[in-house]
Automatic annotation (TrEMBL):
Pfam families: LRR_6. PANTHER family: LEUCINE-RICH REPEAT-CONTAINING PROTEIN 71. SUPFAM superfamilies: RNI-like. It comes from the Eukaryota. This is Uncharacterized protein. It comes from Haptolina ericina. InterPro entries: Leu-rich_rpt, LRR-containing_protein_71, LRR_dom_sf.
Length: 338
């Protein structure tokens, strides 16, 4: 029943006054609950005229929809404040057609993220391809408010999502991963999660999402400077082994807590060629010993990383002296060891 009433409500808001008087009759006979649902569907802060015209169709409608009008007025002010914090000159009038939104280091609050989340949830940003939210001290509550309700078809064009240098930990990454599984960002190509507080629990949620196939378009995954250990790598390994990231060209795992068992889990997972497009792998700043270096050497020599051209690792002296097997394998394939 709601669909035809919504159609009628929108028509009432967009046609001539004579037509409105005729069409308003249909809405005057419905319950307040239904009318409020129609009003909610028409409450677009980027296009407030729809709700305003709907409320003006007859006096009873105005009385019922007055709280929605007040709520929309407040939300519109909040959206204007959000736009004022952007670093790429986004305005209220340009928001609906924006393909890139940049709030890097803009001091976004949880309230700002909730406002942005409402816009995303109702599909008010259909052209969005890039969302930059790094360096904002976003915590789990803030990211939860942002992604709550995001589902299939919400961000159909988004290819770049950067959340680096915030305060996201396990619960926050759980929320983000759940939104991935719901299909909210099916075309995502670059995901930045570096310099947060992600540990093995968060990696379990992210790995589950990856294994489901919802991030099949991902080409770059940045996880540097988190708290990922061997257990986190063991969670990621099954997702890699089934080819769920077969488009990945870059993965950043530097400055974590990954040791030999974690490297072994990683190399075992990719031994079947599941990361055939990977070009850059960063593992510097992890406690990797001789066993991990041998595992990497074997993976390179066996052709498990056929496209790799740069491998970032820590080494105190010449790598050929410290780990000659890995150095020889990389040299034979033309892989740089910066």
């Amino acid at each position: 029943m709601l669909r035809p009433l919504l159609s009628c409500g929108i028509k009432c808001a967009t046609t001539t006054m004579d037509s409105r008087r005729h069409q308003a009759t249909s809405l005057s006979n419905v319950s307040e609950d239904i009318l409020l649902k129609v009003g909610e569907a028409c409450s677009d802060p980027l296009n407030p005229k729809v709700l305003c015209h709907l409320a003006a169709t007859c006096r009873p409608n105005l009385s019922v929809l007055r709280p929605k009008l007040t709520e929309l007025r407040i939300l519109r002010v909040e959206v204007r404040v959000l736009c004022s914090k952007s670093t790429n000159g986004t305005t209220l009038s340009s928001l609906a057609t924006a393909n890139a939104l940049d709030w890097e280091g803009s001091g976004l609050t949880s309230s700002d993220l909730a406002v942005l989340g409402r816009l995303l949830h109702r599909g008010s940003l259909p052209c969005l391809e890039m969302l930059e939210l790094s360096r904002n001290q976003i915590d789990d509550h803030g990211i939860g408010a942002l992604v709550q309700g995001l589902c299939n078809g919400t961000l159909t064009k988004l290819s770049y999502f950067d959340l680096a240098c915030n305060g996201i930990s396990g619960p926050g990454l759980n929320s983000v991963s759940e939104s991935f599984v719901r299909g909210s960002m099916a075309k995502l190509a670059r995901l930045g999660l570096g310099e947060n507080k992600i540990s093995d629990g968060g990696m379990k949620a992210l790995s589950t999402a990856i294994k489901s196939g919802c991030l099949a378009s991902l080409q770059s995954l940045e996880l540097r400077r988190n708290q990922i250990s061997d257990l986190g790598m063991a969670e990621l390994a099954p997702a890699l082994s089934v080819g769920a990231l077969d488009s990945l060209a870059y993965i950043g795992l530097s400055r974590n807590q990954i040791g030999d068992p974690g490297v072994a889990a990683f190399t075992d997972a990719i031994s079947v060629g599941s990361l055939a497009k990977l070009e850059i792998l960063t593992l510097a700043g992890n406690p990797i010993g001789d066993g991990g270096m041998r595992a990497l050497a074997s993976a390179v020599a066996s052709g498990g990383l056929v496209s790799l051209h740069a491998l970032y690792l820590d080494h105190d002296g010449p790598l050929g002296t410290e780990h000659p097997q890995l150095k020889a394998a990389c040299d034979s394939r033309g892989i740089r060891l910066p």
